[in-house]
Amino acid sequence: MKRAGVRLLQVALPPLAFFAAIVAIWQLATMLWDIPGYLVPSPGRVLGAAREHAADLRAAMRLTGSGALCGFGLGLLAGTAMGLLFSQSRVIQRSVYPYAIFLQTVPIVAIAPLLIMWFGNGFGGVVAVSFILSLFPIITNATAGLTLVDTNLLELFEINNASRAQTLFKLRLPNAVPHLVVGAKISCGLSVIGAIVGEISAGFGTESFGLGTLINMATSKLDTAYAFAAVICSTLLSIAIFAAVNSIGATIMARWHIAPARSSTTDMNA
Amino acid sequence: MHAQSLDVTYEGAIRALSGIGFDIPSGQFVSIVGPSGCGKSTLLRLIAGLVAPTRGDLSVAGSGPAIARRTGVRLSFVFQDPTLLPWRNVRDNIGLPLELQRTSRHKRDPRVAAVLEMVGLTPFAGRFPNELSGGMRMRVSLARALVTEPELLLLDEPFGALDDMTRQMLNEELMNLWNRRRWTGIFVTHNISEAVFLSERILVMSPRPGRIVADLRVPFDAPRRHELRARAEFARLTGEVAECLRRTGP
C-alpha cells in the first residue's frame, strides 16, 4: 500500500508541480507586463469568470456532453454496421471502402455549416457533426477487426462446417472487439470536438446553448476570461468522456484475454 | 483414403505437388516427412478439403474431401499453432467444434470433460490460452480435435514449436490416445524420430514440387513406450528415413 502511494506521488507530483509553475508564471506575467484582460486574462480572473458563470457552464457542459455522447453512440452503431456490411460482401467492400478511407481526408470541420443547415441549428445539427466526426475511426477499426482474422481460425471453422452466421458471431465479431475498443477511444475525443464545432457553426440563432455557443458569445463580447473558462470546461468534458470510455475499454479487454490492439492514434485528439 | 496423380499448382505457377498417389487404409497412422516447403502442408489441406487439386483424384471414404467432410466423415485438423480463441477459456475452446455442430449443451459437457481428463487438463478447464504454456496450449488444441471423436485426424507439424522434452511427452500421449481410439491419422512433420515413433508407415517427400519418393513401414508393435527410442532398431529406421531424405535433397 505504501509503495503504491509513493509511486502515485512520483507519477502525479511532477506534472502537478509543472502545472502550478505555469499558472504562477501566467499570473505574474499578466501582472508584471500589464497585459490587457481581453487579450490574456490572469488565472485569477478566469477562475472568477468560472465562478460567476458556474450555472451556465455546468448546463453547457451537460448539453455539449449529451450531444457528443449521442454522436459518439450513433457513430459506434453506424460504424459497426458498416464494418459488418464490408465483412460480409467483398463486392461492397471493394467498391465502397476506398471512399470511406478517402472521406476521412475531407476536413469534416469544413462541412459542419452544411450539416447544421441540413439538420437544423439546434441539438440535431450538433449531434450530426459529432456523429460524422466520430464515424470513420469506427468504420475502419470495425472493418479491420471483422476481416483481419487469423487464417487458421477461419480454416478451423471451415473444417467444422461452420455456417456464415456462426463464423460471424463466434469468430469475426469477438475478434473485432479489441479493434472496436481502439476505434472508440479515438472517436470519443473526436465526438466532443464535433459537438463544439457544431455549436460554433450553429451560431447565435441556436436554441442549444452548449460550450461552443458560450465560447462564441464570450469572444464576441471580448469577455476573454469567460471564453477561457469555457475552453477549460471543454477540456474537462473531453477528459471525462475519454476516461470513461478508456475504463470501459480496459474492462472489456481484460475479459478478452489478449494484449490490447495497438494503434499509433489512440490519443484522444488524434 | 485414395489419392491418384494429384497436382497442385498455385497462381503464379508455383507447383506445390506433382503426381502424388497413395492409399491409406482406415485406422492407419501415417507420417509424411519431407524438407520444408515441399508441399506437405498443402497435401494435408487437400485432404481436409481446404484447397482443391489442380489435377488428379482424391477421395476420402469414397467421395471428394470437402463433400466427405460435409456428409458426416468426422475430420479434425491440428494446426502448427494451437489456433485457440483467446477470449474463450480451455473448456469453451475444446467445446467449439461440438458447438459448431449444434450439439446441445448437456451432450457437449460430458464429452468435453472426458477429453479434458484424457489430456490431463481438467484442473485448467477455466484458464484462458494466454495463461498456459506452449505445451499446454497444444494439448488444448489436440483435445479440441479429439472431442468430435474423429475418424480422420490430420496433424500439421503440431509439435514443431515445442522443446524436445515436451514434444516427446506429447508424442507418447498421442500414441496412447491413438491406441485407444484408432482413428486414421496423417501426421506431417520434418522431425524424423517423431515420425518413426508415432507411425505405422512413413511417406517421404521430395523438395518442391513435392513427390512421394519412399513409402516405408514401421514394424514396431503397440504399445510403443518411450524406451523404444533407445533401441537399435529405432535408430536404424531413423537413419534409413534420413538417408531417403538426403537422397532427395537438392
Describe this structure in words.
The complex is a heterodimer of chains A (270) and B (250). Chain A is 81% helix and 0% strand. With 270 residues, chain A is mainly α. The longest helix of chain A is centred in the last third of the chain and has 39 residues. The C terminus of chain A is likely disordered. Chain B is of the alpha/beta class. In chain B, 38% of the residues lie in helices and 22% in strands. Chain B has 8 helices and 9 strands. In chain B, the strands form 2 sheets. Chain B has a 6-stranded mixed sheet with strand order 5-6-7-3-8-9, with helices on both faces. In chain B, strands 2-1-4 form a 3-stranded antiparallel sheet, with helices on one face.
Low-pLDDT segments, ≥5 res of chain A: 263-270
Query: Helical residue percent of chain A?
Result: over 70%
> DSSP strand (E) fraction of chain B?
15-25%
Unreliable spans of chain B: none
Give the averaged pLDDT of chain B, no decimals.
86
Note the overall shape of chain B. globular
Question: What are the main properties of this structure?
Answer:
heterodimer, A: 270 residues, mainly alpha, disordered C terminus, B: 250 residues, alpha/beta, six-stranded mixed beta sheet, 22% strand
Describe, in short, the structure shown.
Chain A has 270 residues and is an all-alpha fold. Chain A has helices spanning 2-32, 43-52, 54-88, 90-104, 108-119, 123-147, 151-159, 164-202, 211-220, 224-256. Chain A starts with a helix and ends in a 14-residue tail after the last helix.
